[in-house]
Amino acid sequence: EGDGEGGRTVVGAEAARRPLLDPSAYHSSVLRLASHDTQLWTHFDVMDNALAQVTGRKRVVLWPPEADGCLYVEGSSSRVGDIDRWNDETFPRFRAAVGERFECELSPGEVLFIPALWFHNVTSIGFSAAVNVFWRSHPAAHALYDPKDLYGNKDPPPATRALAHAEAAAAEIATLPPPFRDFFARRAIRALHEAAAAGEGARVGAAAEGGA
């Protein structure tokens, strides 16, 4: 035991030595070298990552996962190439995404945390060197991640299968005449929402039992 000041000093020292990330969740590190005005297109990663700026600067624009409907996503990337001067006729919904975005500029020595599923667009200002560190958001769920996915942006295998089934279902529904097509499309969408809500409820319940 010691006085309060000493206690705080010990706790502070222990906290400084404690790793910020669970080492078992580490996935990969990527060195990124880029010339001036090089842009990494808008995309999302399925892993959390930290973008550490070493030299030069970067402009980073981010959108929350809920903005996906306005970003014209194919795979893990947005079809909107120029996020500042886009074509309203080609991408009419993108204008709504402009109000949802966050923007910052990274300088040497600064680190930006980018959560999994957040869309981000990165542009180098001058010559830039940076490091991305990826780690698994759910370390225990190994089936979610492809061990060969160096850049952390491959969809989890269950999600890939689910999206393929959804596309097949949409193709089947499209063969129905209008009244039936709209009716069964709404039912399919509702079934997906209810299944997702049930899964979230089960996850929260399991977490509550584990903490009891």
What does this structure look like?
This protein is α+β, with helices and mostly antiparallel strands and 212 residues long. The protein folds into two domains: 22-153, Sandwich (Jelly Rolls), CATH 2.60.120; 156-212. Helices cover 33% and strands 28% of the residues. The chain contains four helices and eight strands, in the order H-E-E-E-E-E-H-E-E-E-H-H. Helix 3 runs antiparallel to helix 4. Residues 1-12 and 204-208 have low confidence and may be disordered. This is JmjC domain-containing protein.
Question: Strands, helices and their partners?
Answer:
Elements: H1 4-17, E1 26-34, E2 39-43, E3 48-63, E4 73-74, E5 77-78, H2 94-98, E6 102-106, E7 111-114, E8 119-135, H3 157-174, H4 178-211
Antiparallel strand pairs: 1-8, 2-8, 3-6, 3-7, 3-8, 4-5
Helix pairs in contact: 3-4
Summarize the structure.
Helices cover 33% and strands 28% of the residues. With 212 residues, the chain is of the alpha+beta class. Strands 1, 2, 3, 6, 7 and 8 form a six-stranded antiparallel sheet that branches. The chain has a two-stranded antiparallel sheet with strand order 4-5.
